[in-house]
Amino acid sequence: MPSETLWEIVKAEVEKRGSNEGEGDGVDIGEKSVFFIGSKNGGKTTIILRCLDRDEPPKPTLALEYTYGRRAKGHSIPKDIAHFWELGGGTSLLDLISIPITSDTLRTFSIVLVLDLSKPNDLWPTMENLLQATKTHVDKVIMKLVETNSKAASEMRQKMWSNIPKDHPDRELIDPFPIPLVIIGSKYDIFQDFDSEKRKVICKTLRFVAHYYGASLMFTSKSEALLLKIRGVINQLAFGIDKSKSICMDQNKPLFITAGLDSLSHIGSPPVHDNEIGKFHARTPMELWKKVYEMLFPSKELEQYKRSSSKSWKQIELDS
Predict the structure, then answer these.
(1) Per-residue pLDDT at 80
(2) Would the pLDDT of 257 be above 90?
C-alpha cells in the first residue's frame, strides 16, 4: 500500500536525521523532545521557527519534520538540546505519531496540540483524533516500559499529576494526559471577531478539555506579544525554563491558563440550558461537552450523517 511505503520512507529518514543531529562529543547533555501536532495549516511551523529565532518563511509540512535547537546553560557547560518534531497533514497521517515517541524518548517528551480557532467546525474532530491516537500509542509504550523499567514507568505516572495540586478540588474528576500537554489555539486575530456567544462556547469547551487532561491552554496569533508568551511556554517544555505565572481566563482576551490553575467551578457547566442537558444522553462529561459543542459547530462528518439520515427517512416516507 502507498501509505505503508510512505510510512517506511519517513521513518527511515527521520531516524537517520535524529541520530545525526544527536551526535555530540560524548558529554552528557540535557535533551528533551517536543512534538507539534494539530490542524492542517494551523501555524505549527510558524511557532517552531519563532521559538528557534529563525527568520524564514514557513514551508508546508508534508509528513513528519524534524529540527532541533540548542541552549547554552553557562560557560564550559554543554548546551541543552531540544528535538522538535512536527506532524503534517492534520489528522491524515496518524500512523506517523509512533515514530518519534519511543521508550527511549518518552520520559522527556511533550506534546503541543495546535488548533485553528478560525475553523471551529473542524476543531473537535481534529483535537479528538490526534489526542486519542497519541494517547493510545503513549499508553502502549508505557506498558512496554513497565516490563523493562518499572521504576521509570512509575515515575511517569507520578509526573502526570505533578501539575495538579494535591488539594485541588477536581483531582478525582480529571484524567491527566500521560505526558505533558499544551493546547494552543492559533489565529486568535480571526477568532476575536467571532460572535461573543460562539467565542464563549469555544473558550469554555477548550478550557474543559485542557483541564480534564491536566494541560495548559493558550491562544496566539501573529501578534509579537502573544508569540513571545508562547515561546516562553515552549522553552519551558524544551529546556526546563521556569513557567510563566501569568494567567488570563477572560473569554474576551487571549486565554493563557497554565496546567493546574483552572477548575470546573470556574469553567462552569456546558453552555446549554439546564433543562436540555438530559436530552444529550452522554455517558461521560467529555461526551457531554462534545455533543453540546457539535450542536453549534457540527463537524463535516456529522453534517453528512445528518443529511444521509434525513434522505433515508424521506425515502421511507415515500415508500410507505
Answers:
(1) 86
(2) yes
Q: How many Å apart are CA 286 and CA 12, to the nearest integer?
A: 37
Q: Which amino acid is at 214?
A: G
In the chain, pLDDT over 90 holds for what percent of residues?
Answer: 56
The closest alpha carbon to 214, from 269, 158, 270, 254, belongs to: 158
* Residue 68 · residue 82 · CB < 8 Å: yes
Residues written for the chain = 320
- pLDDT digits over 73-128, tens only? 666 667 789 999 999 988 888 999 999 999 888 989 999 999 999 999 999 999 99
For residue 218, which of 195, 193, 241, 236 has the smallest C-alpha distance? 236
- Containing 123, the helix (H) or strand (E) segment is helix 120-148
Q: What is the rounded CA–CA span in Å between residue 319 and residue 42?
A: 46
Cell of 137: 500509542
For residue 163, give the 3-state DSSP assignment: coil
**Residue 130: strand, helix, or coil:** helix
What is the DSSP secondary-structure string of 238-284?
HH-PPPP---B--TTS--EE-TTS--HHHH-S-SS-HHHHGGG--SS
Q: 62: number of CA atoms within 13 Å, CB side?
A: 4
Calculate the alpha carbon distances from 102 to 50, 83, 301 in Å: 27, 13, 32
- Over the stretch 157-207, which tens digit does the pLDDT of each residue have? 888 898 898 999 999 999 999 999 999 999 999 999 999 999 999 999 999
8 A C-beta contact, residue 81 and residue 33: no
pLDDT of residue 213 exceeding 80, the answer is yes
On the question of pLDDT at 306 being above 70, the answer is no
* Cβ-Cβ contacts under 8 Å for 158 (sequence gap 6 or more): none
Nearest Cα neighbor of 97 from 47, 60, 132, 143 is: 132
CA 61 to CA 45: how far, in whole Å?
Answer: 8
Would you give the distance in Å from CA 277 to the centre of its chain? 27
287 and 114 Cβ atoms separated by less than 8 Å: no
- Residue 11 confidence (pLDDT): 56
- pTM assigned to the model: 0.85
